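Morning. Coffee machine broken again, so started the prediction first thing and wrote up yesterday's gels while waiting. Chain of 467 residues, entered below exactly as on the submission form.
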Amino acid sequence: MVKNYLPMAIWLAVPTVLLLIPCPQGLDPKAWTMLAFYAMAIFGMILRPIPEPAALLVTIGIYSVGFGGTAVSAAGYGTSTVWLVFSACLVSRAFVETGLGKRMAFLLIDKFGRTPLGLGYVAALSDLVIAPATPSNTARSGGIVYPILRSVAVTLGSEPGPTANKIGTYLSLVCNGASLSTASMFLTASAPILLVFSFAQSVLGVNITWGTYALAAFPPGFIFLMLVPYLYYRITPPEIKSIDNKAIAKVGLEELGPITKQEKTLLVLFVLALLAWSTSHWTKLDNTGVALGFVGGVLIFKVTSWEAMLKEKNAWNTFIWYGAVLGLAGGLAKLGFFKWLGQIVVAHVNFSGLGPCTVMALLIFSSLPLRYVFASAAAYVGTMIPVYLMLAQAGGVPPMLAAMSLAPSVLLGSFVTHFAQGASTVIYAGGYVSQKTWWGTGVFVAPLATAILLALGFPWWKIIGLW
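Came back before lunch.
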């Protein structure tokens, strides 16, 4: 019983303790009060005494009633970023409802799934194809890609337990690796990426378009994605060496039936959205506007129904916690908290003699051990990213280089545990991979992925003029 109440007690004690501490000199007292509730929000995501969205609603509810913070608390829900994530999450429901995501996966199995390594690349490419329109890789990888690959493993006689190593362990680890890799490659492929840039805008004044981020993140991300199936094939080699992929694909496609009008319409809308996002630098189309238009198109052409979108719990959950975090963080920025903290950081941190790339490499690699503490990427971003942004600023790192280095590293650092990211939790729950294997491979793959990102990213971002 004590164990059950301990997270709740700690969570509620956090703002109480901070409010009892006098406001530091040089900081607006209102900012100190808001910081207490921002800390409560972050601890709510870390400890999870109640579901994350509920914890955030309770936080902003107490702040609104007790300290008149309604306007600040609600401000995050009026930002374009929160609506971009929410809209794309709603659209992801259409990929499940229509079966288009499954059809793409089975077509790839038919073409490339003759061997376990080929199936590994099917997992990677399937995730990549739908990543730009699904900012929840929990929904994308855990709800579409992994269930298909898991059913293939079962068909091949690989179940959790004694037969897991036949192919199930390998496919589970590849699905996780592909999920984290693709999530780092597009602004609309993972909510934490957009959260990083929201902080970067508040702290450093950085803005980035969908197309610019894709241009910067796709090349290094794609190269690592193509290494993932082979890497795990060497680390956890499957016992099965050949697969009757044609039969598996045939059964899967027959169950889906002929391609429907809804699938065709969704595919057209998806391509149009990608074109609009990728050309927004020239067309001046707003990223959020395109996402809202995508939702509108899905509804007006009856690709899926509003009732189905109401069932997309992940979209509504994300909307609640994301808007609350943005509201509180934005309020802190307006009250000068980050500027105040940045001055303290600059006064106590010395990066003299180190170049900007060296500073960022040190910061990002030092962050990997911290990932064992955080139960979600969102909690990690909300807690650590503002700190790292200010440390980067103190080290003289160009703002865009700092943001561009940190954003994809949030996902790639999630390799370390099975709970660092939502999709990882879902895949781990499949039962094919032991914690020992997951953590054992993660302690090797996370630094490798990070090293590849930075080794390829630093020169590439220089070439395209980001810094």
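The chain has a mean pLDDT of 89. Going to sketch it on the whiteboard this afternoon.
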